[in-house]
Write a structure and sequence with these properties.
Keywords: Oxidoreductase
CATH superfamily of the largest domain: FAD/NAD(P)-binding domain
Structural class: alpha/beta
Radius of gyration: 21 Å
Organism: Mesorhizobium amorphae CCNWGS0123
CATH topology of the largest domain: FAD/NAD(P)-binding domain
InterPro entries: FAD-dep_OxRdtase, FAD/NAD-bd_sf
GO molecular function, one term: oxidoreductase activity
Helix content: 25-40%
Domain FAD dependent oxidoreductase: 32-387
Number of helices: 13
Distance between the termini: 36 Å
């Protein structure tokens, strides 16, 4: 069981299908590839390699899905959060931008395919995602987003006010952006199912095996973990925000940003008929986001970023989330309880896209998912798998780069940006005469 603070209780640990049986590494083991980290990125890489008959060993310090892969809110929307597609092209250049765009926008097909192929029990629902517009001006921005994503093959459309209310059950939105390929799931169940798939394909997984160091030995790499050693030709670090030891400086390549997730009691059947009646994922469209969806039991699962008392004062946080949800959905009953609450951590990068680091010949690391866990972590396995199979660097979808320490300002930049978004949301609402949600 993952460690949480006394006031944290995770819905996913209460409801996810059990993990496959694994245990600590003991003794000495030879492999083609050793992967460090049992989250989506490490698991999908291991699965990609094992399917091709490559001898792969995955080492996890705690348990499968211990980090962000088991703590996120379960949204699976194959988009880029902080950048428009033109901005991404300008930042990355070609061919890197188009390759990454193709991988990310196609990630949900990969997720759905793995869930179906391996019969993963994870509450998968692919009913789409709606980003709302709480001001009239927000609709225009969503129209630009739809044009960009549809141009690369995504199935999206802009909803008018009536269609938005019909799909979401909220009268607050002036319109919305609907992404038909998006979905949601039980993220810990998905991680555990991926682990089971890796083992079915012949891969080896050891949990409770923290990696101490990696040293060059007789032309290969000796990965010392727990009470054993894996000797491999290639090593991949996929530990993200939960990096501890293993390789000097890797844990300084990003900065941490917390996010919290909470779940209500199951809503009544009548409430579910008018609140997200099509079982979509809902983003309220604000920069200071409020994202929510149902789990299989009919609980609303919502996530926000901590700010001030929000996330630290539990009574205030529960009241704020209740007020926000009732503001969006006035038909919600007065008896609303938040029965689960937990935190996750994000490995934030300045550019908020994954970074592929060349640590040494035959050793790479990938960090910086920056909150795009389910689809991004799932599609990255293919990229890392290609690297391990010897695909030339020039043909990969991510550029290999030397390990860099995250700039100092990233220690406070994510929190500062949240406050900036909150002020921007307030200014836009006031300027348009639109109502503000509680505690905005």
């Amino acid at each position: 069981m993952a460690r949480f603070s006394p006031f944290e209780v995770s819905l996913w640990y209460a409801t996810a299908a059990p993990p496959p049986k694994t245990g600590p590494l003991q003794g000495r083991r030879r492999a083609d590839v050793c992967i460090v980290g049992g989250g989506y990125t490490g698991l999908t890489t291991a699965l990609d390699l094992a399917r091709d008959g490559i001898d792969v060993v995955l080492l996890e310090a705690q348990e499968i899905g211990f980090g962000g892969s088991g703590r996120n809110a379960g949204h699976c929307t194959p988009t880029f959060t902080h950048y428009s597609l033109p901005e991404l092209r300008a930042m990355l250049g070609e061919p890197w931008a188009e390759r990454l765009i193709a991988r990310q926008t196609g990630a949900n097909s990969q997720v759905a395919g793995m869930i179906e192929r391996y019969a993963i029990d994870c509450e998968w629902q692919q009913n789409g995602y709606v980003m709302g517009a709480l001001t009239p001006g927000g609709v225009g921005r969503l129209e630009a987003k739809a044009q960009q994503y549809n141009a690369v093959g995504a199935k999206t459309r802009v909803l008018d006010r009536q269609a938005s209310e019909e799909m979401t059950g909220s009268p607050r939105y002036h319109g919305g952006w609907f992404h038909a390929e998006a979905g949601h799931l039980n993220p810990l169940g998905y991680a555990r199912g991926l682990a089971r798939a890796v083992m079915e394909e012949g891969g080896t997984i050891h949990t409770g095996s923290p990696v101490r160091d990696v040293v060059r030995q007789d032309g290969a790499w000796a990965v010392h973990a727990g009470e054993g050693t894996v000797v491999a030709d290639k090593v991949i670090f996929a530990t993200g925000a939960y990096t501890v030891d293993g390789w000097p400086g890797l844990d300084r390549s990003y900065k941490m940003q917390k996010v919290f997730v909470a779940a209500t009691q199951p809503l009544t059947a009548s409430e579910r008929q008018t609140i997200l009646p099509r079982n979509t994922t809902m983003h309220d469209g604000r920069g200071d986001i409020f994202v929510y969806k149902y789990n299989a039991e009919g609980r609303i699962v919502a996530s926000m970023f901590p700010m001030g008392r929000r996330g630290s004062d539990m009574a205030f946080t529960h009241r704020l989330m209740s007020d926000r949800l009732r503001w969006l959905h006035p038909q919600l009953g007065s008896d609303l309880r938040w029965e689960y609450f937990w935190f996750g951590e994000l490995d934030m990068q300045k550019r908020t896209i994954p970074r592929l680091y060349q640590l040494a010949p035959g050793v790479v690391a990938l960090t910086g998912l920056s909150g795009r866990g389910v689809p991004t972590g799932s599609m990255l396995g293919g990229i890392l798998g290609e690297w391990a199979k010897g695909v030339p660097e020039k043909d990969l979808a991510l550029k290999l780069e030397p390990l860099r320490r995250a700039p100092f300002f990233m220690s406070f930049a994510p929190a500062a940006m949240l406050r900036y978004y909150r002020v921007s949301d307030w200014i836009r609402a006031k300027a348009s005469g639109s109502p503000l949600p509680p505690h905005a």
